[in-house]
Amino acid sequence: MFKKGRLKTLFSAAFVCFGLLVIAPGVANAASYKVVKGDSLYTISKLFNTSVSAIQSSNNIKGTVIYPGQVLNVPAATYTVKSGDSLYLIAKKHGISLDSLRKANNKWDDMIYPGQTLIIPGTSSTSAGTSSGTSTSGGNGAKAVVSYSESDVDLLARLIRAEAESQPYEAQVAVGAVVINRVQSDEWPNTIKSVIYQKIGNYYQFSPVENGWINRPATDESKKAAYAALYGSDPSNGAIFYFDDSTTNKWIWSRPIAARIGRMVYTY
């Protein structure tokens, strides 16, 4: 039997602990991440600043196979959206990039609402952007291979959708990579917008610009593919051209083939 004074002390301690739990609902050592198309244990480990083996251990995974829709426990905090919040402000508050916040939550639009719970991935000491509104770094120190703005991401994603919406995700990333490869080359314009809208003679370099398909809104998948290309993923193996394998253009078929994904062909 407890003495009255000791019982009071234990009750007070329990009340304080409960109060801490109520006051700080957004702090957690682990969060649930839903796997999306294109994910791998490696890319997830980089996003959450952990290791493949740690994810395997915490989720009782024997091999490396994961599938879209699978829910994984990852080392991350969570944050409950408050009135007046935006994705940009939340990312800034936690010292992470907007890109990593989007990736962790598979959130490619800007719509959030009070009470919504977001995953906060690993932080980075690298700035998420520059005063000009362009970005060169992502969460966990990930570096974009070229500078870009949010409008660049949207434009690149719209091109990807127009060119490869019906093709595998890897082919969509490769389309984005071709644009990035041109930006990085001395032989082409040095910005995403100028590459996509480039016109040589009377011909646009990308047919969706000419036929208007570039104006269709980007999809979540095409935005994800755009970000993947911006952060160095290149299934095209350095290609600077691509085309559908149904084309009969002899000149484009004569170029060295770098990769073939789905019905898309990528050449140097």
Automatic annotation (TrEMBL):
Gene3D superfamilies: 6.20.240.60, Cell wall hydrolase SleB, domain 1, LysM domain. Keywords: Signal. Transmembrane segments: none annotated. Coiled coil: none annotated. Residues 1-30 form the signal peptide. InterPro entries: Cell_wall_hydrolase_SleB, LysM, LysM_dom_sf, SleB_dom1. GO terms for molecular function: hydrolase activity; lytic endotransglycosylase activity. Residues 31-74, 77-120 form the LysM domain. PANTHER family: LYSM DOMAIN-CONTAINING GPI-ANCHORED PROTEIN 2, MEMBRANE-BOUND LYTIC MUREIN TRANSGLYCOSYLASE D. This is Peptidoglycan-binding protein.
